[in-house]
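can u pls check wat happens w/ 2-oxoglutaric acid
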Amino acid sequence: METEQQLDTLQSQFPEVDKDVLLELLITFDGSVEQTKLMLEEQFGPREIKPEIKGKSPTGKRKANDEPCVLTKKKAFSQRQTSFKVSKASANISTTLYDKEQIETMVPYLRFYPNFLPESLADDLLDELLSKRAKFKDKMFHIAGNECHSNHQSTVFYDGDIPEQRYDNGLYRNSKCMAQSFTGNIRTAKFLIEDQANEVLATTKRHPLQVQSEWRASMCVGNYFHTNKNNLDWHSDRLTTIGPLPLICSLTLGATRIFRIRKQYGESPIYNIPLPHNSLLLMLPGTQEEFKHCVPSLANSLLAKHPRANETRINLTLRMSRPHLLSNTPSCPVCRSAMTLRRMYKKPASRGYYFWLCDGGYRSGKECPGFYFADLSQIEKPRAKLYTRDVKQATRWLAEDDHEARIATEFHMEDVKD
Ligand SMILES: O=C(O)CCC(=O)C(=O)O
Ligand SMILES: [Fe+2]
């Protein structure tokens, strides 16, 4: 079924929901009308199943009172092919940014520091991480019922105790992936990176949703790209433990590979940023909300081998988790699984709303439509309800230059009725 038809089907059953919101949800549920409908029924009450949904649904037939349908492998695959075609079509223009000035001018959410650490610390850190290769594991997750493995290996380092509740990013759901503690070299690097990060933050306006204290890295995701064939797909980093508007500091060690970044929505160019050994890239607050990034495995994406690491590139991304956010993460109203925090971005009228989505399917492959809007107004409180069913209570953040969505705001509140 074409997207327009899917939207019409949903709109006919949920006339009270704005079409832009329906589209956003349809995309969130990988194009599944059934899953979108189940989630909407959670919010707005059950609806009659219209014949067109039964007959033409991408997930096959469904009787009333049946268990939710799960996408078949074949269907999920063909849907992904479609979305791949779309992203390929808009991916034509790509520009390479070679130095600090070009990077920070073209993508003002980024800060770039070549040769950041003292040389001997960067080399020691690289050698130490190369020797720990066995600790880096495939990420494992499910998309629309299919088990998937990442094409590069990862691990997580924690500063201090490894928390009971390890969650987010797809890493902690993999039993093979044991978290590790910060080593001496990581801690030394962390202090230097924190100083740089806080210096930059001091020059920017702090949003109430951001961390209000000094920025301190409490965890670090390590990515191991053994050869140029190992890649990391387009994504924005999960917000569940690090919260909205996070700062993420990314240190590259070993081979020079291309890092790509593009806006989440609209006609955006793709920027290629070569990241050499010992370069630090800061992704400032708003980067995860507004952009996607990846490390592609193009033939020309390996720009320089490293004298000792050869083709291997190791990346450390330092992050600050927000403990109250973790302890106040809602559980799914449908299946009680933990939920992940995301932000809508596709359509101007709904862009910027944070929401919680059930994560059960990501881990088990059994999809669940659990959904809440996120109310992050109390995010700094130890005990707070961070979810709501009412879009008027939902937290929204829009980029200052997102005029399209800022104009759409006024209309949106009228459009979404109780
Ligand atoms: O390897 C990189 O440069 C990026 C890593 C990354 O995007 C991530 O860990 O989420
Ligand atoms: Fe990332």
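Residues 184-201 form the longest helix (18 residues).
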